[in-house]
Write a structure and sequence with these properties.
heterodimer, A: about 110 residues, mainly beta, six-stranded mixed sheet, B: mainly beta, seven-stranded mixed sheet, 11 strands, about 0% helix
Amino acid sequence: QSALTQPASVSGSPGQSITISCTGTSSDIGGYKYVSWYQQHPGKAPKLIIYEVSNRPSGVSNRFSGSKSGNTASLTISGLQADDEADYYCSSYSSISTPYVFGAGTIVTVL
Amino acid sequence: EVQLVESGGGFVQPGGSLRLSCAASGFTFSPFWMTWVRQTPTKGLEWVANINPDGSGKNYVDSVKGRFTLSRDNAKNSVYLHMNSLRADDTAVYYCARNGPAHASDIWGQGTLVTVSS
């Protein structure tokens, strides 16, 4: 059982926006700004797309945005494209158990 | 090109040992914390361990404490995960990653598969 809770799947049509939630506790998401999001295509390594809640690494499309409210972080993908079909994982620093925890991942399907 | 390349994975019997290596290139290796993350179809991504820049500080997930040991050689731009007393539930793809901004892993290797089975 993952420490952070994500929906198993989210889908949308090309051009639409979708949002993936990631719920934790005050010991991880709620207590720190160290929330990151990763995109993983089948057979590939995860790729960092958001760090520190809402920052994008160089080269990541501005269609990806992140936010946080309380114990829940969110990733929004706007202008959905076929290549956005992938698994998305949230992660947070945690003050209990392991220093870093992940969500179980969300499968994004472009209809 | 900035990259991490893992090696050393393979098939091992329960109770056996393996040493995973991660070679860095394209960036200055020594200032960065380095992390190992593993992935299985059932448990997803799991943070395993990390090591500080000079190798004096290491952290491990509870399930591998006492069995896995991290080390690094900054002269060789490499980090190593020594895995002993391997169990079936250690079976996973193991990724090496660089700790970048705000505790995020900004560079990942391609992963190496470890299979523990009799």
